[in-house]
Amino acid sequence: MKEVITTDEAPAPIGPYNQAIKSGNTIYVSGQIAINPATGELEMGDIQIETTRVLENLKAVLKAGGFQLSDVVKCSIFISDMGQFSQINDVYSKYFDGHEAPARETVQVSCLPKNVNVEISCIAVQ
């Protein structure tokens, strides 16, 4: 059985997908980008500001499903420039404790939706 998770605290999907799907004790959160849910505008210009918005959106979707960041077991990070890896990690480490951080991969891609610089998705389990 699966349950669609939605919240106004994160941006609405920009395609044919849901913000998240919960199945049993697991939630699968779709990739989040730096859209401010209150304004619908992108928060770009500085990779750390952009990454913060992405993680806040991710956190909001998790919360809507009854989960929190400490439940995350896997993140996938897609970035447009591997040269920004350390700056993204600086922000990411404020959301995920180092010794209990989830598994993850970071992949450089040629283009992301709306030409953003970072997109993050996750899987969380309770």
UniProtKB/TrEMBL annotation:
GO terms for cellular component: cytosol. It comes from the Bacteria. InterPro entries: RidA, RutC-like_sf, YjgF/YER057c/UK114. GO terms for molecular function: deaminase activity. It holds the Pfam family Ribonuc_L-PSP. Transmembrane segments: none annotated. Gene3D superfamilies: RutC-like. Belongs to the RutC family. PANTHER family: 2-IMINOBUTANOATE/2-IMINOPROPANOATE DEAMINASE RIDA (PTHR11803), 2-IMINOBUTANOATE_2-IMINOPROPANOATE DEAMINASE (PTHR11803:SF39). This is RidA family protein. It comes from Phaeocystidibacter marisrubri.
